[in-house]
Structures are given as C-alpha cells and as structure tokens.
Amino acid sequence: MQYVTTPYFHLQAIRRAYRDKGLFTLPKPFTYLLKVNFPTPGNVTPGEQATGRLLIDSDSDFIWYRTSWYAQNAPFDPPGSIATVTEGSSWETQRPAAWEMAIRDLRDNRAWHVEQFIEPILFSGWLGVALAGTPQADSNLEDVTPVAGSDLGMGHFPNALPEPIILGASTLYEFTLRQRATGAVTDSTHLFAFHGARLFKLN
Amino acid sequence: MHQDYSLDLKLMADDVLLAYRRQGFKAYSEEFRYPTDRVVMPGTPDARPQQINFQPDSIFVQLATIISIANAAGVMTFTSTVGLQIRDADTGYQFNAPVGIEIPAQLIAGSSAEPFILPCPYLWRPGGRCQVGLRTLNTAQLGTVIVDLYGFKLYTQPFTRQLYYPEH
Fold first, then answer.
1. Which of A84, A154, A160 sits opposite B80 (nearest CB)?
2. How distant is the Cα of A44 from the closest Cα of chain B, in angstroms?
3. Between residues 77 and 116 of chain A, which touch chain B (CB distance below 8 Å)?
4. How many Å lie between the alpha carbon of B26 and the closest alpha carbon of chain A?
5. Does A29 contact chain B (CB < 8 Å)?
6. Which residues 115-144 of A have a C-beta within 8 angstroms of B?
C-alpha cells in the first residue's frame, strides 16, 4: 500500500499543540542510540534476553518518528577497543523471527503491550517493516538485497511511525530483546537508533 | 530515508524562507551541499575528525545528510565500516547521543539516492563550523569516505547572521 507520511508535517502539528498550550518550541534534529548487548559475542542462545535503557535528556521533549535497528556479532564499544567483526552474522536469516521484544516505561513500570513480549513484525507501527540489506546497493529500499560478503547484520525500518510518539524529558524506557529461535544466533549486539527531533521549550 | 520524505524537503525549505520573509528580509535560496574532504579511513580504530567551514555570505539550511563509502576497489558500499557523529562547533549541539561517540554511519546518514532527510531543518550561521567525527568501526572493511551536508544556501537582504526557525 502506498501512503505518504511526512515527519515534518507531524512535527509541526505537535509544535502547534505545544504553542496552543502557551509553549513555544525550537526543534532540532536528533538521534538517540540504544545499545542492547548480549554477554557472549557472536552467540546468543535460545531464550536468552538482554536489556537496554533509553534516557531522554532533561532539557527537551523528544519527538520520535522512526527507528533503525542494527545488529552485529561483535561488541560495539567505541571509542575503545573495536574488534574486527567476524564473518558469520546474517541479519537476513536472523530477523525478525529470531527476536521478540518488550518495551516498558520505567516512570510507572508500564509495558507498552499486553503480552510479555511481542514479535518485531508487530512493531510495524513503531519500527516500520523490517528490511535486510544496504540502501546504497539500490535506490529503492524495498528492493534491496544484502551486499555479498557484508560481515555486519543490519536492518532497515524506513517507514515513519503513523504518528510520532512524544517521549517526555527525563523519561526512561527499557527495551528487552529475547532470542526465540531454536538454535544459537550470532547477532549479539543490537543498536536501536531513535530518529526524531528534540523540542526545546523557549518559555 | 523513505522516498516519500522528499516531500519534506520542499516543505522545510519553504518554511525557512517564509520565516525570514516574515521578519522583513528578502530571502533567496540556492541548492547547495557542503562535503568533507575525501577521507581514507585507517586500519586502526582511530578517529579522523573533519571540519566543514560554511561560507560567510549566507546561512546554510541543512535538510539531509549523505555519506559515500567506497571500498579499496572503488566500489560504493554502505556497510558500517565507519562511525559518524556531527556537531555544531559554534553551539556545541550534537546530532546524536551518546555524546562524543561515533555511531554506525548508516544510522544517521543516507546515500545520494536515499539521503537521510532530517525531521526539521538545521540552520548553520554564516562562517559557522561543523565538526564531523569519523572513526573506523570495522578494521576488516576499510573505505574512503565523504560526508555531505545537503540543503540550500539562504541569502538575505539585508544580510543577517540571525537564525530564524520556521514557526509552527
């Protein structure tokens, strides 16, 4: 289905809502990075789960409109030691069936879903449709194929959220990933990039 | 990075021009891009910081970020061989968290065909400076990198260094 969604339209609408409450805002583009690291690089066993936390800065609300999910089989820990990422990870085969996910707002310990975990495909509203591959290999993201020899697993979620989600200043969210495949998988480090805009209040 | 976002380029550009016209300026735009140097990434996880100096004659309105990564054979690739961070050297504003960390480039930059379009424009002052942090993240795959800030130069009459963001 073809549809048009523009983050800027949504952002301006949200700014108008703030303005109507007497709050004038200055928007700036921003990306929060959330890291979920499994303890054993390159080997995540069935049922194993790991958690990462996302803290929104205290000086601004964050308008979250899109997410990227990136995975690799070696720890991501710059600027310190960066190991050579070894061949073997294949995001194409390991996503999304290998993973399920839970999101919890730690202000009130409230989960964002009824089930304990939900599968990434159900995130279509939050993450968009999972695609494997590399965008520069093809100008149309929906047709991309993984680059041969690429040693990094990666996923793209190019669709924007149907509605951006406002993550308030100083709020803390917990993201848990659980491996649910029948065998071990190699993607042991997951990076979630939350794309959006910070709204700095001017008054 | 979705193609439909290209609509936002037009919306954002119009809104910035309108913001200046509402302040009483005559405003003209000229499509432009500011690239870094072509950087050969080292085989060690060292940083290769770059600086983009904006021309003093105009405000630069950034609408998208593009990165080009070519492997040793000159073939364009887009694997995460490179970490990237972008920072306004004059205000200290950094485009991504955590501060001071280069993150996989494709998370915050797109290709020429599918640029990473910002959710709102970012305005750079005339003569301003952008610090671009580049770091090798994967020593197994090295590349030659160029980062492009895509947008337009905004000329005003009379000249101003003041930044006016679009209204609501």
1. A154
2. 21
3. 78-79, 81-82, 84-86
4. 23
5. yes
6. 134-137, 139-141
Which stretch, A138-142, A152-156, B44-48, B112-116, has highest mean pLDDT? B44-48
**Measured between alpha carbons, how far is A24 from A135 in angstroms, rounded to an integer?**
37
Token pair of B151, please?
Answer: 């947008």
How far B133 CA sits from the closest chain A CA (Å)? Answer: 11
Segment B97-102 shows an average pLDDT of 83
Answer whether A19 touches B (CB < 8 Å). Answer: yes
SS3 category, B84: strand
Write down the residue that tokens 């193609």 correspond to: B3
DSSP letters spanning A104-122 = EETTTTEESSSSS-B-GGG
Residue A137 phi/psi, 5-degree rounding, is -70, -20
Q: How far is B60 from chain A (nearest CA, A)?
A: 15
Q: Mean pLDDT across the stretch B70-77? A: 70
pLDDT of residue A144: 36
* Distance separating alpha carbons of residues A110 and A124, to the nearest angstrom: 20
Phi, psi (degrees; rounded to nearest 5) at A200: -90, 125
* Residue B92 zone, left/alpha/beta (φ > 0; ψ -120 to 50; rest): left
Q: Which residue has the higher pLDDT, B140 or A143?
A: B140
CB atoms within 10 A of CB A123: 20
In whole angstroms, what is the distance from residue A91 CA to residue A75 CA? 16
Across the interface, whether the CB atoms of B119 and A195 are under 8 A apart is answered: yes
CA distances from A150 to A40, A92, B20, B77, B138 (A): 21, 11, 46, 9, 11
Is B76 in Cβ contact with A27 (below 8 Å)? Answer: no
- Residue numbers of chain A with a pLDDT score lower than 70: 1-5, 78-97, 119-160
pLDDT digits (tens, 9 = 90+) for A65-102: 877 777 777 777 765 444 444 433 344 444 556 788 88
Chain A neighbors of B144, CB-CB under 8 A: none
- How far is Cα A108 from Cα B7, in angstroms, rounded to an integer? 38
